[in-house]
Amino acid sequence: MMTYGWAILIIVIVAAVLYSLGIFNPTSFVATESVSGFAGLGSVQAQCQAGGLAMSIGDSIGSEINVTSISMTVDGDTYSTVFPSYKGYPADYLILPDQAHNFILTNACPNGTGHFSATVTVSYTEVGQVFPGPYQSTGTISGSSVTQWPLYTSSLVGYWPLDEGSGMTAHDLSGNGNTGTLVNSPKWLSGSSCRFSGCLNLSSASSQYITASATGLPSGTSAFTLTAWVKQPALNTNAILSFGTGVTNEGALIYITATGYLDGQFYGSGASGVNQSVSTGTWHFISMTYSGSGQSVMLYLDGSGASYSIGQTPSIVLGSVYLCANTVPSSACTATVEDARIYNTALSASAVAALYQSSVPNFEQ
């Protein structure tokens, strides 16, 4: 007769086999969705957010895997993301053994309320193996729909996640080739020091900043949006993101004042900041939108917006893009920065809120 001990042992063995096949996938990751399948990968966790489906993908195959694309089919519609393959820049899609990485499939979750069930396929290669693939792993993700806000992916003209982790280059994932160059060796950070998977710490004492080209960016009186995540250790003037030549009416800048308020300015336009207090020692999402033709500027702090008049119509003459410096540059800053973007449209308040609420960066093409 089988003893209770043997019965328990068999149950444990069966559960372990099912787990290895991807049947049981933990959904911590602040995850709210039910996940099954995905044989060959490690744990897959998911959560529908305002900007799309966030996924945490693990690697349990014993060698590095390189995620090349993710597709999701739900209610007859298919959403897919193909990740860029910059040489030497694997941080956003290369997953090491026994580790996991976060992705988001933008605009993919069903809009509104109710229940959904989606088929998701992860395409990947096994790096350095005799038979590297490509391979695919498919599973089912189901859960509750949430209100979706469009993220204007086609309008993204500069995108620097800043999670390379090493080197003197900040890659642009917008497809415009606006590669950034690190000046005076800012410090790469990762893990709990960052808002997402990686970030960059810059010091005014060493005049550290990033400069990038401005291909495809707005000029003249065109509309645009600047966004970035930033954490500052103390109150000081931090010029977070700017582009243009930096002379009268020929550049735009979003920054935090020495008294701790969010500000946005066109050079020489006489703009004044909006009274939104930016605290120190914590991550903030800042954004500046301009709809063109002399319209008011909107400034957003952590998804909450306020507007002010710029007084006159600017005419931006493209120069370089600068991160954590003025466009001259003449004033470096002391701050930790991550996920900086430039759009060639004025994002709506709902789109800004969607970016703010996303728990992982958005890979937009």
Folded structure, characterized:
The chain is mostly beta strands and 365 residues long. It has two domains: 4-144, Immunoglobulins (Immunoglobulin-like); 153-357, Jelly Rolls (Sandwich). Helices cover 7% and strands 39% of the residues. It has helices spanning 4-20, 349-357; strands spanning 34-37, 44-49, 52-58, 65-74, 77-82, 94-95, 100-106, 115-126, 135-144, 156-160, 169-170, 180-183, 187-190, 198-202, 209-212, 224-231, 238-244, 251-256, 262-266, 284-290, 297-301, 304-308, 320-323, 335-343. The protein is globular, with a radius of gyration of 22 Å.
Task: Give the key terms.
seven-stranded antiparallel β-sheet; 24 strands; 7% helix; 365 residues; mainly beta; Jelly Rolls; Immunoglobulin-like; eight-stranded antiparallel β-sheet
What's the helix and strand layout?
Layout: H1 4-20, E1 34-37, E2 44-49, E3 52-58, E4 65-74, E5 77-82, E6 94-95, E7 100-106, E8 115-126, E9 135-144, E10 156-160, E11 169-170, E12 180-183, E13 187-190, E14 198-202, E15 209-212, E16 224-231, E17 238-244, E18 251-256, E19 262-266, E20 284-290, E21 297-301, E22 304-308, E23 320-323, E24 335-343, H2 349-357
Antiparallel strand pairs: 1-9, 2-3, 3-7, 4-5, 4-6, 4-8, 8-9, 10-24, 11-12, 12-15, 13-14, 14-24, 15-23, 16-20, 16-24, 17-18, 17-23, 18-19, 20-21, 21-22
